[in-house]
Design a protein that fits this description.
6 strands; 10 helices; globular; single chain; alpha/beta; Rossmann fold
């Protein structure tokens, strides 16, 4: 079985060394590259054929959010886990919109890094507990403001399957392959379930999924 290939991006050498030490406790994982700025992180993630990129949000030359956007555009197979000091919703939203699969707070990296990398590598979303709470609180406020009730029970069995796979960050093609249906059918189910639940996009769907207990924060 091939080893999981990881690239680390952080402008502090001591932080990268600490992250490397934690990650390489897993014998089936390998840190194949380290970068001190966002541009170098993008280059290494692509050229070294990384499976996962762990990126600090505040890097020089190119911040972690823009680096994420470029990595995902150039090599969609790379799963990005953002590392940040900030638990503000604005940062979390921008990271997810850029294509990050997870958001890990630095103050919990020693506890949650292994799980975070494992989850995003497997195609699942990951959020530090404090981040998940921010997302949940914001989502509950959103529901209250719009007067939306929980309509999950209105989804068909197939729509619920598609819902969870979307929340776990699977692409339309991956969902089609897993469920043995066409990509067009996946797109139709996605549009239908978003309409039924009153949701706009993947970010709102992920918040909903955490609130409903369908995926772990």
């Amino acid at each position: 079985m091939p080893r999981l290939r990881i690239v680390l991006g952080d402008d502090h050498t001591i932080v990268r060394q600490g992250l490397r030490k934690i990650l390489e406790d897993r014998r089936d994982w390998e840190v194949v590259g380290e970068a001190g700025d966002g541009r170098e992180a993008v280059r290494q993630a692509v050229e070294l054929n990384a499976d996962v990129a762990v990126l600090d949000i505040g890097m020089p030359f190119l911040n972690g959010i823009e680096a994420t956007r470029q990595i995902v555009k150039r090599m969609p197979s790379v799963r990005v886990l953002i590392l940040s000091m900030h638990s503000d919703e604005a940062y979390i939203t921008k990271a997810l919109q850029a294509g990050a699969k997870g958001y890990l707070l630095k103050d919990s990296a020693d506890v949650d890094l292994i799980r975070g990398v494992a989850d995003v590598a497997a195609g699942r979303s990951f959020f530090s507990p404090a981040v998940a709470k921010v997302m949940l609180d914001d989502y509950v406020r959103h529901l209250a403001d719009k007067g939306i009730v929980d309509r999950f029970d209105s989804l068909s069995e197939r729509e619920r399957e598609v819902f969870q796979l979307i929340a776990e960050a699977h692409s339309n093609k991956e969902i089609a392959d897993l469920l043995f249906i066409s990509i067009k059918t996946v797109q139709r189910h996605r549009a239908n379930l978003l309409q039924k639940l009153g949701l706009r996009d993947r970010l709102e769907l992920t918040r909903y999924a955490i609130r409903a207990g369908l995926i772990e924060p």
